[in-house]
Amino acid sequence: MIIKDIKTLREIIKGEKRRGSSIGFVPTMGYLHEGHLSLIREAKKENDFVVLSIFVNPIQFGPNEDLEQYPRDIKRDTELAKAAGCDLIFNPEVDEVFPKPLKTKVIVEELTEPLCGRSRPTHFQGVTTIVSKLFNMVAADRAYFGQKDAQQAAVIIKMAEDLNFDIAITVCPIVREEDGLAMSSRNVMLNKEERKQALALYGSLELAEDMIVKEGILDPQTIIAKMEDFISDYRLCQIDYIEILDFENLQEIKEIQGKILIALAVKLGPTRLIDNKIMGV
Amino acid sequence: MIIKDIKTLREIIKGEKRRGSSIGFVPTMGYLHEGHLSLIREAKKENDFVVLSIFVNPIQFGPNEDLEQYPRDIKRDTELAKAAGCDLIFNPEVDEVFPKPLKTKVIVEELTEPLCGRSRPTHFQGVTTIVSKLFNMVAADRAYFGQKDAQQAAVIIKMAEDLNFDIAITVCPIVREEDGLAMSSRNVMLNKEERKQALALYGSLELAEDMIVKEGILDPQTIIAKMEDFISDYRLCQIDYIEILDFENLQEIKEIQGKILIALAVKLGPTRLIDNKIMGV
Lengths: 281, 281
Description:
homodimer, Rossmann fold, Pantoate--beta-alanine Ligase, Chain: A,domain 2, 2 domains, 38% helix
């Protein structure tokens, strides 16, 4: 069932709640891959009724980013979502979501500054604002996000806590292609050679893990330098950032200990990919 | 019934909703007066179960404002609220509302710039952030605000619309003392002479209305100048602002027409009072 308007969405969800159904919510920008489907399956395990939103949110794209090029295929998405256990797809037009000029922003400070916040300065306020709107539209009991966007997950957990959204947030593991590339809707934008070289992301994360676990190296800068070295062999890869942070507050650390996030962003031609590893040391 | 914690509040409200009750919500900072009570009565008319929050919200006070001096009397408030039809008072401690450092802000742009926004630059983001939190805690069907804080009402209506809060917002008329002074919790901070001179606010609004309605004067600056003249006779009154704006967008206007807001703020000693008139011309 594909719903395009907020009023009908609310009526259906209120009906489900009256019947005692719990509501699981998976917000996406569509062009579904196994990562998204794993979120839908997890939502279906824990809830009676699963809502998937598909909305390519303009306010989380910067002026020179790939809003227009972002891949879309609602027909294929519908089939995949249904097979994974989705009960309702909410797929509104931009005018339904933003009927008047938007003057309200939801801003999370500090957590949004490192990593993707540096090269995409207005990205996260676009994410937190649309997620607030969607949370209020869907009124779910539980929402599901992928660890691939680890910073996004941390930001949304903090936002939901700070604003007292009555919703439990689950972060599900990264789903990878057989060769290790993290699933992403943007992978389809890579040409054949870029696709090969995209392995630099996962390869460098594996290298970092080995350095920490097998060699006992605990200096973040040493590890980052080795990761940069590793990626420099992939000539199409241009590093946007590599950072090692404590996972909860996304602050820089001087020594690796506790729960850490190793995260990187790499550009391959016009396509920007991200990947990460969360480790307890 | 006074509830201090969010968990119990939610359980009670969910129980009421399961029984089919509609929920009305009146957010206040307490020290209730007839203005607040009119909101509770209106809420009780339109809803089965009325929640009043009493919380002196620190994040809407600036560093040199009257947070510590803000009057409090929970015992008296409880009796008045009950008599007016309130079913539940939510009166949390600061630690319950802000258990960890707050990193999330809800910001409404443009509407928050004129009027009180000029002299209280962080006031409205404190209001919109706490109201977002309270809306998420209470999950009411309808919320009630007083027109005395006309800019606050306009800002909250815009915020609720922009963020798709599933709540209807009603703005209730200003309640006045017999001599015309708008009811305010801060009136109690006035000494006897200040209390007399506080009539300058309502007097100047009456004068403005007469100029528009009886004399047909449509130039905002002429009216504002006359209001300033009028208030200058009250030597304890120090004008913070007098503005005439279109009501919906709170933008300055060159000529009086349509629905307008005449609003002013005046300081009497340490106490800052506001008042306004909304007119359709």
